[in-house]
Amino acid sequence: MKLKNLIPMLMCLYASLFPVNTDYLSLRKEMIEKQIVERGITNERIINAFLKVKRHLFVKPGFRDKAYADSPLDIGEDQVINRPYIVAMMTYVIAPGYNKKVLEIGTGSGFHAAILAELVKEVYTIEIEEKLAKRAKETLSEQGYRNIKFKTGDGSLGWEEYAPFDGIICTYSPDHIPPRLLEQLAIGGRMIIEVSHSSKVQEFILIEKDNKGALKRTNLIPVQFTPLIRGKNEK
Asked: Which residues contact 85 (CB under 8 A, 6 or more apart)?
């Protein structure tokens, strides 16, 4: 085994054997104030969701002391858990409501799904990496979430069985907007997706569907995510 792969494993083992008595609640409060509120997101429901969801439980034990830092963290399978602000911003943009149904493309660690589950009626989340999907489902189940449905597969195809969705969040970066997702967006719905124009140029795009089914596209901010992993059936 290569040394670079061995070190994270040893860190996780050490953390599980010798847990540190960390004040995670204080770290969450500081994260919310410095990374979210000071950057303009003051929605009370979103803030309360971030206060309730224990982000450190969604990262590897060896990285829990960094769980509330302003940076993405490795979660395995060449994927990361996104920065808290990015999660908050994407959540805010889709205007989550108590009775809404949201589709998430890219379950990852399950953290974003947990935030959404605190805010909307139903969350449908798709992850193409089986190991991540299984781990996220276990973590979310342990936390008591019952309003989340899980699927392992190609997120670019959406989840037609449960469409339409009031909100769609794509946490990976395709090089175009998958047409199946546009079809599955409800009238009055909002979708946020980060599109890769090149290996160095990506930006958030907000898609809104009006009451006649017309789509409005708004370019938001530049950002960098992991490229979307597609299955063989995308058209």
From this structure: 35, 36, 39, 41, 70
Domain 74-222 CATH assignment equals 3.40.50.300:
no
Query: Is the peptide bond prior to 164 cis by the omega test (within 30 degrees of 0)?
Result: yes
* DSSP conformation letters of 179-208: HHHHHTEEEEEEEEEEEESSSS-EEEEEEE
- Alpha-carbon separation of residue 136 from 29, 152, 208 (angstroms): 24, 11, 29
Coil, helix or strand at residue 160: helix
Q: Tell me: the pLDDT tens digits for 210-235?
A: 999 999 999 887 666 554 444 444 44
Asked if 192 and 206 count as a contact pair (C-beta separation under 8 A), the reply is yes
Q: Where do the structural domains in the chain lie, given as residue ranges?
A: 74-222
| Amino acid making up residue 135 | R
CB-CB contact of 169 with 105 (8 Å):
yes
Whole-angstrom Cα distance, residue 68 to residue 199?
Answer: 28
Q: Is 180 exposed, middle or buried (0-12, 13-18, 19+ CB in 10 A)?
A: middle
Whole-number percent of the chain with pLDDT over 70: 83
